[in-house]
Amino acid sequence: MSTDPWGEPTDDQPNTMPALPADFEAERIVVATAMARPSIVDELAATGFDPADIVDDRYRWVWFAVEELASSFKHGEIRYVPVARQLQAWRADGRIASVPLSEDQLRELYDHAQAGSEGYFADRITDKAIAARMVAHGHASVLRGNSPAFDRDQDVAAAQAELDGVVRATGDSETTLVGELLAGVFERAVTPPTNDDKIPTGFVDLDALLCGGWAPGQMVVVGARPAMGKTTFGLGLARAAAIHNNIPTLFESLEMGNAELGNSIVSAEARVALHHIKQGVVADDPEATRRMALKAAKIKPAPLHINDGANLSMATLRGRVRHLVRTEGLRLVIVDYLQLMQAPRAESRQVAVSEMSRQLKLLAKEFQITVVVLAQLNRGPEQRTEKKPMVSDLRESGAIEQDADIVILLHREDAYEKESPRAGEADLIVGKHRGGPTATITTAFQGHFARFVDMAQP
To answer: Which pLDDT score, from 0 to 100, does residue 14 have?
Structure first.
């Protein structure tokens, strides 16, 4: 039988890959059992077993040969003769580069079949494969850490992303019969939903439209033209969750620094003019000073994590989210804003943004958190007589619109017409709401206090 291909580490080869774990006995039994009962190929695949985890390539080719022949032997044994012929045919046409097992070796292998125990031995193969990926990941991390070109942001994020791949998800392979869903449907139909898992938005009408607020697993896109108040609105969502409801929240700012964000948060919470804070003249107003002191006691313990790093990649965000979910119970992530994120390499900007959009949706779904992504609109509204934005105004809108569960567009008439009769009002245009109604919700925009305010009566 083949041995570990990487060999043992030696003192004079410090960069040599260490020996990787493998269970050749389990591999031998599983492929032998597949020849005896070819139906286990589909059965094990349904449980998430991956033949790529079979280390010995000779055994792996036997498995592939059984897969190829299984349709002709569904109700009986394949045995070793047809497998030997299939392997020799592949060898002859160059598909197999190495020498496959001979018919005599396959006959000997066939004697190791253990029908009924294939699931146990398949699990052993999977466990060793995970252990091998752990060892390989550790070795790669050692090499990264010792490299003169080590970059703490890129290399740590890359290592975290690779660690996510150590255990392959198997849930996608599981199916459910529709009949099994009925009990849950009837229970939900007669049980009014609770808001225990919802995150309040800070706006009464928006919460009502969303049946209580943001839900786990949702990706929400908030689009607006520049200077409409995207960051202010995003901070308002963060304040509503973290400061007012003690919900762990992460605010990723790629545009504004921590000092500016801190000014805006205190201004909004204490109703102190933002320009007074920036000018350092709040001490001239004792009442404003008192309000700041009172609100500071509420803001300080809030579980609002803010990061103002300029270079945010999906790998970095994923690592940060994983850590905060594990340590703080993170439930809400707000990214300001999508087009400033570090895009992956792709043949076009549209493809890169599409990939980021998809990864953000998968992030929300995997960790069962809400991800709110602020995004910039193109110049479409300015080119129309009616300046109201539409979902199609999202830059690279195809993928963003497709991935988002909810799309909210910010619009202020006074941004285009200073003397507008609706000066001070802002519309939250819910242009997409997967599984729910759309609507336009009117709020008040108080730019001097860096906040949007609910106009609805509680």
So the answer is: 53
Q: 74 — phi, psi (to 5°)?
A: -60, -35
Residues of the chain under the 50 pLDDT cut: 1-13, 169-173
Q: pLDDT value at position 275? A: 85
Length of the chain: 458
Omega of the bond prior to 120 within 30 degrees of 0, cis? no
Q: Which residue has the tokens 């039988």?
A: 1
What pLDDT is attached to residue 398? Answer: 66
Own/partner long-range contacts of 312-315 (Cβ < 8 Å, ≥24 apart): 312/252, 312/254, 312/340, 312/341, 312/342, 313/154, 313/157, 313/341, 313/342, 313/344, 314/341, 314/342, 314/344, 314/356, 314/359, 314/360, 314/363, 315/157, 315/158, 315/160, 315/161
Q: 337: closest CA among 371, 369, 370, 361?
A: 371
pLDDT (0 to 100) of residue 193: 62
Give the separation between CA 236 and CA 202, rounded to whole angstroms. Answer: 7
What pLDDT does 27 receive? 92
Non-local CB neighbours of 368 within 8 Å, separated by 6+ positions = 216, 217
In this predicted model, what pLDDT tens digit does every residue of 426-448 receive, in sequence order? 889 898 898 788 899 899 988 88
Question: The tokens of 176 are what?
Answer: 């459910």
* The model's pTM: 0.66
The alpha carbon of residue 433 and the mean position of all alpha carbons in its chain are separated, in whole angstroms, by 20
| pLDDT (0 to 100) of residue 373 | 92
Burial class from Cβ neighbours inside 10 Å (0-12, 13-18, 19+) for residue 125 reads buried
